[in-house]
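Why run this: before we spend reagent on co-expression, it is cheaper to look at a predicted model of the complex and decide which construct boundaries make sense. The entries below are exactly what would go into the expression plan.
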Amino acid sequence: MSESEQAAKGPLPVVSWLKGIDTDDPFLEGHKCGACGAVFLGEREVCSSCGTRNQMNAVRLPNKGRLYSYSIVHRSFPGVEVPYISAIVDLDDGGTVKGNLINIEPDPANISFDMPVEVVFGDALGRKDRDGNSYIAYFFQPAT
Amino acid sequence: MSDVYVVGIDMIKFGRFPEKTVPQLGAKAALMALDDADLAIQDMQALYCGNLGQASAMVGQRILQEIGQTGICVVNCANACATGATAFREAWMSIKAGVYDVVLAVGVEQMGKGLLGGAGGAKGISKEGLLGSSTMPAVFAEAGMEHTRQHGTTFEQFAKVSVKNHHHSTLNPKAMYQIETPLETVMNAEMISYPNTKLMCSVNVDGAAAAVLVSEKKAKELGMQRAVRVKASVLTSDPYTNRDLVMPDVNAVTRRAAKEAYEMASLGPEDIDLVELHDCFATAEILHYENLGLCKDGEAGRLIDEGEVALGGRVPVNVSGGLLSKGHPLGATGIANIYEVSTHLRAEAEKRQVEGAKIGMTHVIGLGSACGIHILEKVV
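The model came back. Tokens follow.
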């Protein structure tokens, strides 16, 4: 596929569990165990919490959550812009997601545990794969 | 089942040896351990070899190709940073099972420089710095910040771990570094992933360590004078916890292993005279004081503040200098820390000797995750 053909197709999701780009309604999808309630990212058939098979149900994860833990990354791989905040967020109603926390100064003095955050979607910092495809990623920002 | 004893153990001085091959480094440690036991490669009935970087390249066999192709059973193990402990445990299990009486365990690694982790898959685009960070300094920073969230642990308290372990390493000639790092030096070093500065990250080095393990029958035959009894050998994988698949839970996997190890040894944390634990980052060491039961939950900060875990304290931790200063050659680490504890139990640790040490514990974490714990006891 040429770059122009891909551009017509539009950007791809950065992970398989980012859904809804086609309908302009992006959201994160979890899989929830019908037996024990554990929430996973990505499709699976068996629950690794309780071992129950074939009771995994796709659920739309909420766009709200709270900061559980974080690190401020000052040294990364070549080409990665630093500093940035690597954040662990517990989404409301279950499910934990890791991502960049943006639109806040990367300084521990500004960051508090359990601060409310929201999930936002946007271009994957200009990164493209070897075929020239662009991607949509998710980010966290302080809740408005 | 027979008790299992270590009758020979040694490690090479950790450093950077680009002119050597992985099997050459492993062979050197193997010969040192054989010499320590006053045995020959012809006496070994099996070799359990731990190496991560060349996990598919038959490192154990290539070690024998350096020092003696006797045709014995060779098992190559890879289990992230628990690789060396896994090889040691496989050796222990073969004697426990009654299959062998004398076996060799080797852990060896040759490391590059720079950040570990975060390489990501080949598909799509790199996620590093896009969906957070998967580098090891960041992952263990996040684990440390969870402790901050729960107990208010400070950047300064994390940094004190590094001050302590670097100080210990000045007494260990086999450590990569023998340099004092005062608190302000640690805290003002280049920030890698807050709260871990460069001096709070383990050192990537080349290294190898090896041990000769024997059955009780064989130990009596050889003489018990310098023998060390393996009181517990435990390996766990990460049990399910809510965040584990997103934020590796190094606590649950360690707590499970510690509980099993204390039960197997019929001992408690109060019986432990010294500990070599997995200080891959300064933040990690703080967590494991509590995970291993050295103090109650929430007391780890006080432990480092009051010097209870320093040489001369109630329960010295990482008197070798730890991964932070002795260095962390991934596959060798799990046997090198058994060497350190054994050396104290044999009262041969010289300037860093923990006086009167009778029982010691070693602990490693392989992220992904594996936890290996050994409890060792002085015999004579």
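The domain at 4-112+203-375 of chain B is CATH 3.40.47.10 (Peroxisomal Thiolase; Chain A, domain 1). The two ends of chain B are 21 Å apart (CA to CA). Bring this page to Monday's planning discussion.
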